[in-house]
Each structure stands twice: as C-alpha cells, then as structure tokens.
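Lab notebook, bench 4. Still working through the backlog of constructs that have no structural model yet. Next entry is a single chain of 300 residues. Request: give me the structure tokens for it.
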Amino acid sequence: MKTSKALETNPCRETLSSYKKKICSFTAPYSDCKEAFEDCAYLSCESNGFEHTVDAVEMVAHVFELIEDKNEEIIRDLSHIYTLIGDLYQFAGKSVESIEWFEKAIAADDRNPIPYQSIAASFIKIGNTDKAIQSLIQEISLDPTDYSSYLVLSNHYVHKGKVAEARSCIEKLLDRDAENMRGLHMLVRICELTREDSRFLTMRILSIIKHYDKKELIIRLWYLAGENQFLFKNTLAEAYQKYPTEPLFTILEQYVDTIVAKDSKNLAQGDYATKNHIVSPAILEKKKLEFSELFGVKFL
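Model written out:
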C-alpha cells in the first residue's frame, strides 16, 4: 500500500516513459526497474495527471498480458503491475476502482502478499472492515515478517470491539519481534481497554535502547512523560533537533503541558507550530488524527 509516495522520494533519474520503454522491450527485467518505475509513476501522477499516468502503466500491463506460457517471474511481475495501477487509483481517491485492480493482481498471483495489504486499505475507505480484516489475515499468512500489517489488523479488531483477537494478533507479532515498540505500545492500549496493569509493558518499552525511527521516538517520549520529566525534556530537545519540521513532537509537548495543568485526556484546539515553521492546516489535521489514533487522545 502506498501513500503519497511521490512526496517522499527523490526525483527519478529517468522518466516514466523511458522506464516503460525499457520494460516493454525487455531490455531490463521488471524486478530491476520496479521501485524506480513506481516512484516515477507517482511523480507523473502529480505532474502529468492521473489519466496519462494510468494509461502508460496499463500499456505495460498489456505487454505482459500478451506473453504466452508465462513463467513464475512474469506472473509475479504482472501481479505487481496490476497492484501499482490499483495503488495509483487509491492515490487518486478512487477506492472502488482500485479494488478491481487489486483483485486482478491477486487473481494473477495469489501468493503475492502486497495486493492483499493494499486492497485492505481500500476496503477500509469504503467502510468494509470485515473484508479488510480478511485481506490482512491473508497477507500476514503469506508474509509473516510484515509487522506493519499486524498493527493495522490489531487496530481494526479494537475498533470492532474484538479485543481478544487484537491481543492475539499483537502477541504473534511480539513472538517474532519482542522489542517491537509499536507492538508493545499497542498491547498497552489493549490493557487499558481491559483495565489490566500495563506497568511492566511500559518498563519494557523504556528499556529498549536502539536507533529510534520517528514513530518509535514519539512512543518513547509518550512513556517518558509519565516516568521521567528530566529525560523527557532532554529527549524532546533531541527530537526537535533531529526532526525540526515534525508537528507530532509539538502536539505531544502541548498535550503533556495540558495533562500537567488540567489532568485531562482531551487536548484543546490551538495553533500548533513546529520549532521552525507554522504547519499548514491540511498537514496539521493529518498529524492530529495520527496522534489521536496512536495514543487515544481526543481534540476538543
């Protein structure tokens, strides 16, 4: 599943058209061009428009469809191309159409885990949580090392009130990766729902020493805020230095100040600025939603 991938990648060294020619002429295997081709497709979607980009990728799919006696590599490549088309429809906000392409990707190669994760996101968009859950279960069975899907699946179980299933899902993740901070944090959230003591889990999270990514760092800060204010402030200062334009850290800081002042789990609306710039309203809303989902905080 892709989200705004073009905004996160460096400009492509070649154009979508040049990669299309390479792939269609079989001068380079699709697997060698796959990542760059996908990046160029997202960039093309923004610069050349959705219809133009999808037409170009569909032409590549058509070339692979015409191959007779397809071997496993060609079948897998075709599945990936169909998935890319579905991702582009999803990127354009066309969830229903994206599902049709993801279903084609699964029909082409039902052992490819990627379209199952993508189709789950589209099912969520149209409100079909049950099918999203089924798709994620299948994706995990095909690729049990994709830890992000355990987290997404567990979260969907929680929203449906299936707390036991959510716990089982996260425990399977932690069996594979005992220091997965996102998994441990999700287990804490589940313990809060069942009114179980999660102190031991908090200590486990804080005992993990590693090179934290952005999400792991915000989780660590969340627990430090309740355990060690001195270390919280020092770590927060390091976070601002490392990620100077990330609004999540400012939202967390203001949340902690609100807790200290009012002892409330609800955070009032306000003007949220990073240390270096004012955040655009669209990005701010997205980040507030992300913060709410991660920590169960409501904005008044």
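Notes after review: The first helix runs from residue 16 to 24. The first strand starts at residue 266 and ends at 267. Flag for follow-up if needed.
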